[in-house]
Design a protein that fits this description.
Blueprint: E1 5-8, H1 13-18, H2 20-26, E2 30-33, E3 59-60, E4 63-64, H3 65-77, E5 81-86, H4 105-113, H5 115-121, H6 149-154, H7 167-183, E6 187-190, H8 198-205, E7 214-217, H9 224-237, E8 241-243, H10 245-254, E9 279-281, H11 287-290, H12 301-313, E10 318-323, H13 346-358, E11 363-368, E12 372-377, E13 381-386, E14 395-397, E15 404-408, E16 414-417, E17 421-423, E18 430-436
Parallel strand pairs: 1-2, 1-10, 2-5, 5-6, 6-7, 7-8, 8-9, 9-10
Antiparallel strand pairs: 3-4, 11-12, 12-13, 13-18, 14-17, 15-16, 15-18
Helix pairs in contact: 4-5, 7-8, 12-13
Domain Glycosyl hydrolase family 13 catalytic: 3-355
Family: Belongs to the glycosyl hydrolase 13 family.
EC number: 3.2.1.1
Length: 437
């Protein structure tokens, strides 16, 4: 089963379609596309896609409805699932007199003047009428205490008009998802899910319309307390999966100078990772490099590589690979080419291939140490990760492993596994993904 999700962050639709065959060939099982709901077509900044103007229109800087249809068709033709990023917590923060009317008087007039063009991009509904009015929004001001559960769901995110939980809003969001289902989407990422009330989540995402769809939410947390307040209750009260920020926090701690690799043997057993069947595992998400407040969660470049090897090599969770076009490098030059086109980089391709080869095979620890870890996947896969600055040479038992030649998917090296005890050699600050030939 191929389940690795490629996050095609802010990719134009044409680029996704033209690379569909290659995405499938590498072994990705799904693609998370940018938010498709109507946003400023003239706004090249990535965050524009996270500020919807109208649910009923599919148009953005990245493409229009026809391009979106082509994406779904091309990916499905190559056996790849398609997931849409959905923003239902808020609408666009626009400077106009009627800022709480959506899409607004001027936009409705444009719909009338360009009726043919907007009819082509229409998803559902009557574009002669407005979608939301001032009484569909909270009037509580901006969130000031980010750990306050009430403020988190009832106040606004930095000026973004925050939608109220009422029958009209719920009905429009349900209608939007039904229409997106009709286009062929296989599931949805729910943006800013921790800012949606529980009842809102249940009524919009817990309907029969979404039965069989893969749903995963982004509840961004950075420590145990935030996870306790926001993430674990969502896990208990909903049926969707979530980005595994507890595991991400564990990885940050493990790869710190005082951290221990032993924590990665079974982190979910100690509440340091989500249950395997509800987890979308990440080494980085788009919010972390692109938002000032989250950059403290970035791993060192080499540690991020080691974390990706662990995520792709372990048993459990659905790995997500973030691949951008240097969106954060304009403000942070050190980010240049760090994630640009990462999806087709040789190391990521090797990790995807290894993950797919051992998918569903049990994980078993072969050697544990504070500085390095070796574990098996079934009888033909071995993962070795060394965070220290020196070579490590653990002796492992070969019981339960296939004897014979193994190739490292990352580096291309060959080794011959044999005997009852085998001595590994793991280079400093490196990792290996061995697969029996």
């Amino acid at each position: 089963m191929h389940d690795v999700i490629l996050h095609a962050f802010d990719w134009p639709y044409r680029e996704i379609s033209s690379n569909a065959a290659k995405i499938a060939e590498i072994g990705y099982g799904g693609v998370l596309i940018p938010p498709p709901l109507y946003s400023d077509p003239n706004g090249p900044e990535w965050w524009q896609r996270y500020q919807p103007k109208d649910y009923r229109v599919l148009r953005s800087h990245l493409g229009r409805k026809t391009g979106l249809r082509n994406v779904i068709k091309a990916l499905h033709k190559n056996g790849v699932m398609v997931y849409a990023d959905i923003v239902f917590n808020h609408m666009a923060n626009e400077s106009r007199p009627d800022r709480l009317n959506f899409p607004g008087r001027a936009e409705l007039e444009r719909y009338r003047k360009e009726r043919r063009q907007f009819s082509r991009d229409r998803l559902y509904g009557n574009l002669d009428e407005g979608l939301f009015s001032p009484w569909d929004f909270h009037a509580s001001g901006n969130i000031e205490n980010w750990l306050d559960e009430y403020q988190s769901t009832e106040y606004s995110l930095s000026g973004l008009p925050d939608l109220e939980l009422n029958e009209w809003v719920i009905g429009q969001q349900q209608a939007c998802l039904r229409a997106l289902n009709g286009l062929g989407f296989d599931g949805y990422r729910v943006d800013a899910v921790k800012h949606l009330p529980d009842e809102h989540i249940r009524r919009v995402f817990g309907t029969s319309d979404l039965a069989g769809k893969y749903l995963f939410g982004e509840a961004l947390t950075a420590n145990d307390n935030e996870e306790r307040v926001f993430l674990w209750p969502l896990l208990n009260e909903t049926g969707m999966s979530f980005y595994d920020f507890p595991l991400h926090e564990t990885l940050r701690r493990v790869f710190s100078p005082s951290g221990s690799m032993r924590e990665l043997i079974d982190p979910a057993a100690y509440g340091q990772a989500l249950p395997w069947q509800r987890s979308v595992t990440v080494a980085v998400t788009h919010d972390i490099p692109n938002n000032d407040g989250f950059r403290g969660q970035l791993l060192d470049r080499q540690d991020e590589f080691l974390a990706k090897v662990y995520i792709m090599g372990r048993d459990g969770g659905v790995p997500l690979v973030y691949s951008d076009h240097n969106e954060s490098a304009g403000k942070y030059p050190e980010d240049r080419d760090r994630w640009a086109n990462a999806w087709q980089r040789s190391d990521l391709k090797a990790m995807v291939a290894f993950h797919n080869a051992v998918h569903g095979q049990p994980q078993r620890t072969l050697f544990e140490d504070d500085g390095f870890l070796v574990f098996a996947r079934g009888y033909r896969g071995i993962v070795a990760i060394n965070k220290t600055g020196i070579w490590q040479h653990p002796n492992i038992s070969t019981f339960g492993l296939r004897h014979g030649p193994y190739r490292c998917m990352l580096h291309g090296h060959l080794m011959e596994l044999g005997g009852e005890i085998f001595t590994f050699g793991i280079p400093p600050r490196q990792a290996q993904l061995w697969l029996a030939e």
